[in-house]
Amino acid sequence: MGLKTLVLVGNPNVGKSVLFHRLTGRYAAVSNYPGTTVDLSSGLTSLAGEKWRVVDTPGVNSLLPSSEDERVTRDFLLRERPDLVLNVMDAKNLSRGLGLTLELAEYGISMAVALNIADEAMDRGITIDAERLSRRLGVPVVSTVATTGEGMAELKRVLERPTCPIARPPLGPDLDRALEGFAPHFRKGEAAHRAVGLALLAGDETILTWAGGLLAPGSGERQLFEAAQAQRARFARPPRHLIFDAREAQVREIVADVLTMGGRIEPRLSQRIGQWCLRPWPGYLIAGVILYVVYLFVGVFGAGTAVNFLEKTVFGKFITPGVTRFLEALRTPGFVTDILVGPYGVVSMAFSYAFALILPIVTTFFIAFGLLEDSGYLPRLSVLLDRVFRVMGLNGRAVLPVILGLGCDTMATMTARILDTKKERVIVTLLLALSIPCSAQLAVILGMTAGMSPRVLVLWLTVLIGVTLAAGWGASRLLPGARSTFVMEIPPIRRPLLRNIFMKMKVRLTWYLKEVVPLFVWGTLILFFLDRWRWLGALERACAPVVQRFLGLPAEATQAFLIGFLRRDYGAAGLYHLQKAGQLDLRQVTVSLVLITLFMPCIAQWLIMFKERGWREASSITVVVMAVALGVSGAVNGLLVAFPLLVG
Amino acid sequence: MTQTHKFPLPSSARENLEEALGLVWHKREENMTEAAVLRKAMEDGVSKDAYGLVVEGGYAREIAGRLELTPEGEALGANITRRHRLAERLLTDVLSLDDPAVDPNACQLEHIISAEVTESICTLLGHPRECPHGLTIPPGDCCHRAEKYLEPIVVPLSRMRPGEEGRVAYLQLREHPELHRLLSLGMIPGASLRLHQTYPAYVVDLGESQLALEETVAARVFVRRS
């Protein structure tokens, strides 16, 4: 036997991940946006001098699953049989939390309850008699404020005491009899037979695919399935509803017993701000202001000031010359010098792009995104944009991956998992690959257009928004399946804690450095050899008809698009150099900006796309992206040849 | 089994008559008034003497091979159709009965619910206009009154105004299993709520939490206004 396991289970957005961090010292990307923890994260803690494994599960509303997250959590409880469950709930939302607690009681696992966010409950005049609740449930109950650490010592103490499994509340004669009917199919003393039985009564048959290990000799999945069919046929109302009603009655009774409401307190400022952000007025104005501030921070400070300093001073004056001089002193052969500091050198190109150009941009973006996430603003943006997203066959929930895409499309492609239906996941993946520019690319593009007529930027933005809406609309028409409906919980506006923001930034930056920087190096090496063997020139000539005739661009631009596949911003940066050298006129700048934005996603995103969506979907998306990118850019070129004044 | 029907009449002849008129009424919705066809349908589906009951009782006349309802037949036909379809709504929406269980139960209910109970059900359901299968429910007096004088007590959330409060009466979840999520978010019958705004999405305060829903979802949450 390995370590004993403690698992955290609770509704979405109750501070589970912060608590997890408090217990383990490790940080799981915490957020205010329901459904962000998709994978199970695990860490270590010590209880009573013994090492324990701690597992954080995605937030769930019920263990009768209606989403992937809920299924993951439920299956974990049944298959891994943790030794102890810490049920985390939002103290100001006791009845919702207790609904889950009673479901957990069916699993026959020792348990403790944390009434988290106790400070907000107190602010709202809610008092919960923890001792009384503890007596009713038969398990220890502790009030905590995970963000500040209040109540943690008490919680750890309680977790160290052996706790007995919570009493299973009866569901009424009919359901209880039906559940007992399953008992003979399970091994003797099998604690989970009620939990499995409930899933089967509620019509969740996925459980049958692996329930075999729990069954008594002589019984099997087939017999269990038939027993479930027989039991369900005895109810006129769907058992799912009956189970729900029974639980609801129990919860109401407990809540009435342990909870007292103080006088209603005047809405606090944070609550009022929360309301303003949801309404069209002044919600859209607030959204505009926030967008502008984020742009100032990421686009002007991150991509301007910080990049300039790192690129020109740190790399331009110290690192690259330093390495060059070092290599000269060593008298290394020319090949080695070239591969490190030549025009396509690992240090001069890959490292300087990765650390000087991209790192400050993604860092500032992740800070800004973390602030928006932890303050509870993003779900409000989902509400404001729900109707726009519906045009594209999506709903407000898809706002999260798309906004994250403005930071890093690769990371956003993974986040598309939180969406309810496959159709929505495909549409979002397509939009991220096609028309959502990432922050690194955005920064270079904004830099390029800075000294020019604002009409270039306006035209670029118009084309981009148009393509996004049209592609989403088209995809939603062509793909089978229905749009899922928009139902979302809006968390209160909270003051983000800087400590948590920086933790989260650290986790994301580590990911970035580990996953993306190696790709930079590989990409640069490929370019280096292409250049050395003079294939770059050959490729340029091969693409010339399309690039020169159809798009009206100089042949050198081909290179920028090839590089663009490695990193989108790489490509944009290539164009930047061409433009600075005076090789592009306004029309060509506009066309190439449109093309570089729409064209292939970067190689990291492309690989993730194959991993997440499978090769069939990913290659279809690739073909669509290439066709749309070339078609639209060609059309823009034609338009500008006919009406040069649009940008001039 | 002892039958304890109290209303309208404790006779199976009355039930057969109602059943037959309901059939004629429904077939007319589908543009089928041919007397021979209707006669056959009644003999197969209701009873051997049903056609006779209808024609001899003066509820319908045969004119040039077509069966036409008299004013009495019209009124009774509309009435029984209304009761049947309201019963279906009640069983589907409020009691969430499984589909195969709805029709047989509705068929029994329709004969035993009195005019007052019919009106109460209709009001509880917010004077619905269509049955679960999408057929029109003939409006009753209570529906006309509601239009003129007062607003229904139970309305879909989508018809409430911002600032209004109420308690969840029931949810229509049958054709929308994904809306079970609403239940676990605390949107359950009896929960009190306050509608905050309706645009760009519906936002409700529900206990200490706040939920945003799109309009199609709001139309499936029925609220008893307070």
Could you list some keywords that capture this structure?
A: alpha/beta; 6-stranded mixed β-sheet; two-stranded antiparallel ribbon; 63% helix; B: 226 residues; alpha+beta; 6-stranded antiparallel β-sheet
Describe the structure.
The complex is a heterodimer of chains A (648) and B (226). In chain A, a hairpin with a 2-residue loop joins strand 2 (41-47) and strand 3. By secondary structure, chain A is of the alpha/beta class. Helices cover 63% and strands 7% of the residues of chain A. The radius of gyration of chain A is 29 Å and the shape is elongated. Chain A has helices at residues 16-24, 68-80, 94-104, 118-123, 130-137, 152-160, 173-180, 193-201, 221-233, 239-258, 269-278, 280-330, 334-341, 346-375, 378-391, 399-405, 409-415, 422-434, 439-449, 454-478, 498-515, 517-532, 535-550, 557-566, 568-580, 586-598, 603-642, and strands at residues 4-10, 41-47, 50-56, 84-90, 110-116, 126-128, 141-143, 259-261, 487-490. Chain A has a six-stranded mixed beta sheet, with helices on both faces. In chain A, helix 3 packs across helix 10 (239-258) and helix 19 packs parallel to helix 25 (568-580). By secondary structure, chain B is an alpha+beta fold. The radius of gyration of chain B is 21 Å and the shape is elongated. The N and C termini of chain B lie far apart (43 Å). Chain A binds chain B through residues 61-62, 66-67, 90, 92-93, 95-96, 99, 121, 124, 126, 235-238, 240-241, 244, 248, 252, 274-275, 278-280, 379, 382-387, 390, 395-396, 420, 484-490, 492, and chain B through 95-98, 101, 176-186, 188, 190, 196-197, 199-201, 203, 207-214, 216-217. Strand 9 of chain A pairs antiparallel with strand 7 (209-213) of chain B, so a sheet runs across the interface.
